[in-house]
Amino acid sequence: MTAQNVQDAYIYDAVRTPFGKVGGALAKTRPDDLAALVVKESVNRAPGLAKAGAERIDEVVFGNANGAGEENRNVARMATLLAGLPTSIPGTTVNRLCGSSLDAALIASRQINVGEADVMLIGGAESMSRAPWVLPKTERAFPMHNLELANSTLGWRLINRNMPKEWTVSLGEATEQLREKYGINRERMDEFAANSHQLAAKAWDEGKYDNLTVQVPDVDLSRDETIRPDSTAESLGGLRTVFRKENGMVTAGNSSPMNDGASAAWLGSEKASDILGLQPLARIAGRATAANEPQYFGYAPVEAVNRAIERAGITWDDISAVELNEAFAAQSLACTDAWGVDLSIVNTWGGAISIGHPLGASGTRVLGTLARRLEESGDRWGVAALCIGVGQGIAVVLENVNARA
User: Fold this and answer.
1) How far apart are the C-alpha atoms of 184 and 330, rounded to whole Å?
2) Which DSSP string corresponds to 32-87?
3) For position 405, what pLDDT does the model report?
4) What structural domains and CATH numbers belong to the chain?
5) DSSP string of 237-273?
6) Could you read off the pLDDT of 160-215 as tens digits, one per residue?
7) What does the alpha-carbon distance between residue 78 and residue 64 come to, in Å, rounded to a whole number?
8) Active site residues
9) Which DSSP helix (H) or strand (E) runs through 284?
């Protein structure tokens, strides 16, 4: 395919559930039901499909970091069927851990670019409350020793004995090592975390999430459950460290919580506008992944974003909005320091420390939020990025189609 034949890929709409805390309001809702909800809502928000027919959806691509439980391995297909869409619509699920649903956007946008699709529904879902315990199979039949269950909610499990020990430390310990390497102190971490809560609460109060969220039926959850608007750097500074007994700085307060939720977005070519009955919000102008040492996973977005910006044909001076998933405050600050970016353009509607981080759903959340931020501000260029466990980063550059020179 020649460069002249490449189709642009656009984001047309995005929606998500409010994110619930582990064991909280969404704990009784299955992840495939959460995914089905955002699929149905996306279809309902695309008036053109009532006329064109849902059969015009070329494929559904969802992200999910677990897959071992009620997701039934392929939550994209499960959600499509549960939502009542035609059985002829294929669905696939990608697992790039925390970056899964942004990876879904990369996959779908490539299909659009090469002309294989015009309308793609992407998204992600995760129920960290309902992630199962798993029992490994034994190497021989009928063993007489006790077996230990592994919690599949988060982090390493069933580790290969050949994996170097320095790679398999906990996410929290890895972040302690990262903040030591890049000189991030406790005061900055707590200030960053408190700001996340305050910005998220303000954004909800101002209605910025009204068009980005759908309520889960029969659940009393009107906004993200882990936002604490009264958080201050001083109050967070009183929390104890949880990963190191001595010389630790990473706390529950300056880390993202564990959550439940789902998200979805329409991606499409120019033709998708007529099919969906929607106008495009932004063009996917650049995309990239990167990797480094597993224990420094939090720093991998630095190179991913730099590559995505270069591929978009712009520079950091052009970027007006950044949506960076806040896995940890220390990790976020290490990245923003490396970029030299002004924090006033980063996560201005709050980030994962306050909003939450249901792993498979977070990528589409940051992408959808970025698109709506650019729409509201009128700025032209923005970037969405996530760090990924085991040392990866992922990023997408968006161009606001209504702000082109």
Assistant:
1) 6
2) HHHHHHHHHHHHHT-THHHHH-GGG--EEEEE-S--SSTT-S-HHHHHHHHTT--T
3) 58
4) 3-128+257-400 (3.40.47.10)
5) HTSPBSS-SSS---BSTTB---EEEEEEEEEE-TTHH
6) 999 999 999 999 999 999 999 999 999 999 999 999 999 999 999 999 999 999 99
7) 12
8) 98, 357, 387
9) strand 282-291
